[in-house]
Predict the 3D structure of the following.
Amino acid sequence: MLDFVTQIIVAWVFMALAMSILWTVQWIRRDAGIVDVGWAAGVGLLALFFAATAQAPMSRRIFVAVLAGLWSFRLAGYILVNRVLGKPEDGRYGALRQNWGRKAPLFFFLFFQAQGLLALLFALPMLIAMHAPRESLGVLDWTAAALWLVAIVGETLADWQLANFRADPSNRGRTCRAGLWRFSRHPNYFFEWLHWWTYVLIGIAAPHGWVTLLAPALMLYFLFKVTGIPATEAQAVASRGDDYRDYQRTTSPFVPWPPRASGSPGHTG
């Protein structure tokens, strides 16, 4: 078993090497979207590493590792299949590549390393949760598992509904309002954020339990201020114009909520 500091150092070195390899892959393929796969899979791999080396009860290590691993590999697999393999580079990264010009290789390398560090930060709440003071799994742990299930089912359903909508050629240029997308412009983001409260419920009473709050706080910041909603909606407005502007006027940006009446009748989807 490893002490806390050694675990963090080993985890950081692993992510730095992994992201260096993925940076090489993107340099060859000219597709930086692989970084999202690396981030999602990296968090899960770090959770498994922490579970294998933490000085904590075995039952709790396995419990957290199963939740974290299933979340991680579902998300990484979805991104790989639906956004990377056989797909053009994500517009966000294409814009960065164009803006950075000849400095793009260096800046992408730094960007990939930053994503590796973020993966470590997001895995820390999982490590903290493994050290919760309760010897056996209790009501709070199973409540956390129920929340995890709601979040994973919600995100998976939102992804499936959007994929089905996009698979229909007649929907090209239109905005998805099917299922959960009728109640939120970003239900996948909402349920992704909800998932991170799982580790707060499990680990808030552990030593340094406040660290578990880091994940939902960081996720909310990135979704609203950095790479999530702003970039996604800018692309949506550029490609779908008034249809998406009407969607913005009528539909909650994040938390699922009944839509308001449309100011532009006739839009469907």
